[in-house]
Amino acid sequence: MKRYMLLSFSIMALAGFGASDAIVFAEDRGEIVGTWEFVSQFGDEATQYTFVVPQDGDATFDNEPVKDLEFEENFVAFTFTLGEKGKRAELQFEGTLDDDVIVGEFLFSNSVVALVDGKRITARAEASIGTQSKGSVNDSAIAGDELYLEGKTFI
Hints:
Number of strands: 13
CATH topology: Lipocalin
Strand content: over 45%
Strand order of the largest sheet: 1-6-7-8-9-10-2-3-4-5
CATH architecture: Beta Barrel
Number of helices: 1
């Protein structure tokens, strides 16, 4: 009977974890906690975004939930969605953390579409969910294997 109850609890716990997106922290989450200002370069244009990683709770990118957030040593990676209904694109971010600076790339279909520089704009203890974005890409869409961001096409 004890084994049955333990197995039932384990299955329910795994089912619960399977329903949520993976968040992997091999180190103390405090190193990446904060509100970050990201600036990306799409061709000649710079666009600003807000990335929020609270001490407890879900991270957001431009007020959208972040999926598959990874932080190990100085490596940071996550998946996020940009755009509005009908014009949404799922992108990945991969970069490195050095104190209050994150440098990396936005990827679409494993191809680099933009270089990104990020800096922490709030102290780690001040990070909270719901921080307003300073900018967003509203003209984003995916068509076949192409990504359109702000009127530019990236393959």
